[in-house]
Every structure is written in C-alpha cells, then in structure tokens.
Amino acid sequence: MTKEVIVIGGGLAGSEAAWQVAKRGVDVVLYEMRPLKQTGAHQSGYLAELVCSNSLGSRLPDRASGVLMTELRCLESMLLSIAEREAVPAGGALAVDREAFARGVTEQIDTQPQITLIREEVDRIPDGIVIVASGPLTSDKLANELSRITGEEHLYFFDAISPIVEAESIDMSVCFRASRYGRGQIAEGDYINCPMNEVEYEAFIDALLGSEKIPLRDFEVAVKAGVRAGPHGYFEGCLPVEVIAERGRESLAYGPMRPVGLIDPRSGKRPYAVVQLRQDNLIGNLYNIVGFQTNLTYCEQDRVLSMIPGLEEAKFIRYGQMHRNTFINSPMVLLPTLQFRKRPIIIFAGQITGVEGYLGNIATGLYAGCSAARLAHGDDPIILPQTTMLGSLCHYISHADPKSFQPMKANFGIMPPLDDGTRRNRRQRAQAYSIRSSNDLGLFIND
To answer: Which run of H or of E encompasses 159?
Structure first.
C-alpha cells in the first residue's frame, strides 16, 4: 500500500520532486509559502520562479551543464521539457522566458490530480515521507527547525541578482548583436553587446570601485562561531561585479566583460571589453545584464551602469540586489541518496543541500522524487552511478569535508577520473566524460 509524500517548497527542486512522485502513482501534498509569505527576492506566486539569471546553462554536450541536461532529458524531467518549450535565444545556452516558464510549471502541477498544492508556511518537519526542498530562501522558522533536527547550524552565503532593462531603451547605434564565435539561433546573434574601449573601461572600473553598496542587514551579518560563511561568503559562481572588480582592475575584462569571440562590426576589431545583454522574455522587450550581479544602491546602479556604452538612457525594470542563501552541512547529515541519516524517510533536495545552479536543483529534485516514490512503494532508494554528473553531485555533497563544505555546481572536477590511460586534451576529456555518463546512465536505467 502506497503512502502520501509531503514536499516542502515549490521551487525548482520541489516542483520536479512532486511531479516525479505523482507520476509514479503516489499522492503528494506540496507546500509553498508564496504568495502568502514572500521572500524579498521573488516577484510572483508562481512555482519554480527563477530569481537570478534566466539561463539554465550551456546546451553543449561537452560542457558540465550540457551533460547534466542530457541526463535530465533521459530521466524525463518535467521542468527541463518546459524550459526547452519556453526557450529564448541565448547562443549555446538554454535560457527561458522566466514568467512563461514559471507559469508553465505551475499549470502542470495544478493539472496533476495526485498533487495537492497548499499555500502556507511550514515551520516543522511533519511525520511520514518528506522531501525538504525549501531552497536557499528558507524561512527563519523552518531554518530553525532544520537546525533542531539535524543538530547542525545552517550555513549561508550571499548571492546577487542582475539588473533587467527595457530593450527599447538600449542604444543600438552603439551596441551590436552577436554571439561568441558566431554561435546562436538568430542570424545576427542572440546577445546585445555593449563595447568598451580601454579609456571607457578604466573609467567604469573607477566608478564601480568608488560606488556605494547597500548595507547588509544585521541578522545577515551575524555569523555563528565556526561557520565558514557570512557577509563576505559569496558563491564564486555568482559574485557581485563590485567584488570581482576589487580583485584586480582587469578581473572583469577576463570575467563577465571578456570580449573573446566578438568583433564589433563598426570597427572590425575586438573591443577592449564587452557587456552582454541576454533576452529575458519571449517577446524580447526585456534584457538582463549578463554576469552583472550587484549590491550597489539603486541610485548608484543608475549612475554607474549608465556609463556602459549604449546604456546611457537605459530604463531599469528590475535593479540588482543581494540576498542570503541558506544551506545545510550536507556531509554531516545526508546519505548519498540525499536521505537524512537520522530519519531516512526525510529526503533533502535542491539548493538547501549545497547543490548550486538551476539544473542541479532540478536534478536533485528529480532524484529525491524518484527515491520518495520508491520508499512509498516499500522499496529502498537506488544510488546513482558516480560516473554520471547527478551521481557525482550527490556523492560530493554527502562526502565533502564538513569543516570546509561549500556549495558546488555541476563540473567535471567532481567526477571520477578517466582511467583508461588515453592521453586527451581538455575538450577530448570533456567529451569522454559525456560519453561515459550517457553510457552508464543508460545501463542504470535499463538494469
């Protein structure tokens, strides 16, 4: 006899988990506190709302995100199928119209008869089979409950959001359309590029370094002794531009403003630096500034970002902002199956586990949903092959050093090395990892 599964959190991981449980014939109660209680970073009450970038990462099969995307496709991810349906031009990346994507996920959940969606805050872990997918913006009450049941202080780092501007306010007499190395779905290029010469770049860096930041709230800067996180504990994959600039004047030119693979058609040359804008919705009237997460005050964002060529008169629809991301010390409390060591009928998924990136959140949600359904049917969860990207992520968060545990995105560095003795360059190694992942996942699925 099957049992009901409770899912806490209607973000990427929770929505995917609930769907995977329900499609396996098990009733689900999905709790989401929004819109009754907002987080400060979300804008709507839709499930699976994307807070930061609208990009899920590279589609290329020899990139880490591309490998994970292939695995999700093989495992029949509901969220990935909606993302591909609501895709917007983004070169070699999979980016979505964020509103259409979240609306599509919400509609899919609403039409699944075995899922009951309840809009209220959860402040305690209920009895029974539970998936905790409350995300990085877990409420204070639930975070305290997680600390109580795990016996561990929850950790956190600071994440930031990029600004969004109206397309018609971008000066296209200065900017040009192109994708790096000519990749893209649109003939003239998927990205709008704002080129800078060396003088413009140096002036921009001066303004950025001298700008005023938004003070972090007291509760966000208070860090328990021994917790390796805090106001300067940023996630390396999503650093504010002002933090990158503080690491060296050329750091942005080699980071989000790198001009490689781009030629300004007016000069016929590669610019000194480039700020890229990526389409944020399907109709193409909104663009986000790629890699420009920031904690500048809104007035300073107006002043400093208007120094970018082509954005002098830009109209901001959303300013950049910073928020706190909470995660548990997974190596201390989780099994490789993402089950809670002390109560294995509790499964964690998504960013709360320390997995970073949209695809990682979706993937761990999918895995948690499959495992919860197995528990409901009286079977044990199955450990994924570590040679798959998802298996490697689950192994990392359950085996990392708990004294220095930090969030991790999908990458080839966490996968077992190739041990066939063949000499390969970087691209060939990536291709070999991709092929091994597909083969081993295929064997796992068909076993």
So the answer is: strand 155-161
